[in-house]
Amino acid sequence: MRPLMSPAIVHLALFLHVILLHPSMLLAQTSRNNLTAGGDTLIPPYYITSPSGDFAFGFRPLDSKSNSSSFLLAIWFFFDGTVVWFATDASSGSAIVAAGQSVLSVSTTGQLSLSNPGENNPLLWSPSSDHGPVLDVSHVVLNDTGNLQFVGGAGGSSVVWESFQYPTDTLLPGQSMLPGTKLQSRSADTGFSLGQFSFIVQGDGNIVMYKMNTAADSGGPVNAYWSSGTCCAGNTTLFFDVNPPAYLYFILSDGSRGNLTTPQPLPSTAGFYQHATLDPDGLFRVYIRPKNTGGKKGNDTAWSIMKQIPSVGCRSLTNGQRGMCGPNSYCIDLPNKRIDCACPSGYVFLDSQNRYKGCIPTFLPDSCDGKNHTAEFEVQDSPSANWVSSVSYKMHTFVTEEQCRHLCLNSCSCAVALFNGNNCSEVGMLVAGWQENGTTMRTLVKVRTKSPPVQMLPYILIVALAVLLLVTTCTLLVHCYITKKARKNYLGTRVFTHKELCRATNGFSNLLGEGGFGKVYRGTVKSLQPPEVAVKDLGGCKVEYKEKEFENEVRSTGQIHHKNLVRMIGYCKEGVHRMLVFEYMQGGTLADTIARSERPCWSFLAEAAIGIAKGLEYLHEGCKSKIIHCDIKPDNILFDDKHIPRITDFGIAKLLGDQKTQKTVINTIVGTKPYIAPEWFDGVGKVDSKVDVYSFGVVLLEIICCKRATEQPTDAQAPSTMFPLRAWVESLIRGGNAELLVQEESEALAYTESVERFARIAIWCLQKDPSTRPTMRKVVQMLEGEVEVDPLPDPPMPSGLSAVLSSGSDTRHSSSMVHAFQVE
């Protein structure tokens, strides 16, 4: 349905209404300084002025174009248009933008509102105070100080609202800021969206300037870059004085006074226009401009800066780092005392409308995927800047600039190299810097020059659509074929013949590895998707494998369906042959990952640890019958093609079924030192899922440090024990030196709190008393930050466990006979 009247017709009708009933508004706008309830209205582009004509209030075009269709409801210096206040949205803090058909009016009930007539939600803005909506307004006045006042109330002469109490980014002479009041910068000199900086008179008495957090858009003490140093004084009030000698000053609760503008006072307001503004670059500046120069009101002069806070500009500290700009950008002090931000070579602004948020690369960064991408990049010079706040993950000394370029180019983690003298720092991400004349630091930026190989996605889609019907038809045929070929199905797993597996593994020639329960071969079963499999031959294993043990493993693995556990596809039980068929994992083992010369990034290690924990949690609590793995170690943790960790090798898993099975006495244990929990060696005792928790604690330490559990730390003062890694980690954590665990990995250094939390969790998992170890469910919750980690217990007293563990020389596999114990 078409509307009865278009917005243009509505606007024309309102315009004619003003002409016919209120012609004085059009003929003498600049001579009026008030609006009256129940009669006057204001529409774009009109305004009212103060009695002196210095200030105007009304609709100001959003840009300098005379034909602009967007307007601010604002107060400005009439002679040059400098905005000193504008209406903002109460929730977002952004400027209210009015359209050509907007109307400002005071209703007969005394409520002032800005609205768009004819729209579904016409109200754009209505003033409110700390006590709620402002009502009973009889008239609106703009006085000569630039203060907009709504007058009304019971007697019709009380000020019920005034702009001086609700500043935006500017203070005027005579204005004050009470505790809890703040100024918020704009994004740019010509823009009115929310900026990055705030100036707050806090309730604790401190006056503080904050840089907003780019990710969360919220300020906090960590982002403060200036303060008055009056914390805890209470009830501080800031004043913009008008009486000579004039200052911008504050008064504390005890009556003492401090000046922000020193040492010289501000000039008299009788001869100078003045305003103090929190500019888009984050600096609070006091501006002055002579009045009545050449018979005109300041028209032939410009605003000059009388005072700026902080005075150091680009050298201001934000978030403990120098510079007012965001990540990957640097700060520039301009000749006009303003600040600007710039990006290094190959980077652009994250937000072109707000240059203080930082920069991002215009190219796809290097990836540490094991491939050599050196030919796709080059190192370019960037304008000289000081980046001393940036965290280096690798430092080289006594190198040339050319060697520094080469080092960064050949490191997949290096984004920028900083060369200073004969020192070269490889940096993963630049922290805010500043341009400094005479600096000797060279900024060498790694920039992509060739695009990575393009995926043939469009062609793949075409081919996929072309064969869709064929695949659908073949799926039914293959399913029927496999169903007929499979002679038996045990708990949803496929039964293979020995001949099939011999053919799939090319005569068992492709050996992947060998463990305590047999050899593992790589094979291909064309009827599967994907066809690659791992075949575990249980014949000829080092430990006697009885029939009940084979059935135990089939039952354990056949019921598992979890993304962090390797799925068993089928098995072979033909004559003397006993084999299990698993998914093939292409990503290698966690042991291989830890042994790499180049340490993996912390985010990858943390996700791997959480995934392993979730897999164990599923075994303990997610299966129909509880499963204890009993041999958790890096060699039994594989990665698939998406780098997701998967737990494998249930060769010694014990399936816990009904209560009778749970009380069964097991006479043989098999594990791998030093991952075996102490209770295995107690002679008689209850063994439950806490043995897996202990093993996970060892693995978690290895993940954190990228060292094997039996590897002696390089720290000469670390204690030498059978389990040196735990002793070394626990000594660092108790000493408050968690950063030494990951001192070679820049990303992990940025997450030292997370590293320390993981290490504390590992120490809890390694408690000798099983009852004090957490469950795997709680371990997952602590790793993900959902549950706090308890303070570490007192260090354990030395026990005989080390002697028992060190009695054997084999550090990979062991079998220990004990008399009797219960599995619970």
Domains, number:
4
Mean pLDDT: 79
Query: SS-based structural class?
Result: alpha+beta
Per the CATH scheme, the topology name of the largest domain is: Transferase(Phosphotransferase), domain 1
Q: Could you list the spans in which at least 5 consecutive residues all have pLDDT below 50?
A: 1-5, 7-12, 14-31, 214-220, 486-491, 654-670, 716-722, 799-824
Please outline the major beta sheet. Answer: 7 strands, mixed
Helix content: 10-25%
Spatial ordering of strands, largest sheet = 40-41-45-46-44-43-42
Topology:
Layout: H1 7-21, H2 23-27, E1 34-36, E2 41-42, E3 47-49, E4 55-61, E5 70-77, E6 83-86, E7 97-99, E8 103-106, E9 112-115, E10 123-125, E11 128-129, E12 132-133, E13 137-142, E14 148-152, E15 158-162, E16 170-171, E17 176-177, E18 182-188, E19 191-201, E20 207-211, E21 224-227, E22 237-240, E23 248-251, E24 257-259, E25 272-278, E26 284-290, E27 304-309, E28 317-318, E29 321-322, E30 330-333, E31 339-342, E32 347-349, E33 359-361, E34 377-382, E35 392-397, H3 401-409, E36 416-420, E37 423-427, E38 433-434, E39 442-448, H4 457-485, E40 489-490, E41 493-495, H5 498-504, E42 511-515, E43 518-524, E44 532-537, H6 547-558, E45 568-574, E46 577-583, H7 590-594, H8 602-622, E47 627-628, E48 637-639, E49 645-647, E50 654-655, H9 659-662, E51 668-671, E52 686-687, H10 690-705, H11 724-734, H12 746-749, H13 752-765, H14 776-783, H15 801-805, E53 814-817, E54 822-823
Parallel strand pairs: 30-38, 41-45, 52-54
Antiparallel strand pairs: 1-13, 2-8, 3-4, 4-5, 5-6, 5-7, 8-9, 9-10, 11-12, 13-14, 14-15, 16-25, 17-22, 18-19, 19-20, 20-21, 22-23, 23-24, 25-26, 26-27, 28-29, 30-31, 32-33, 34-39, 35-37, 36-37, 36-39, 40-41, 42-43, 43-44, 44-46, 45-46, 47-50, 48-49, 51-53
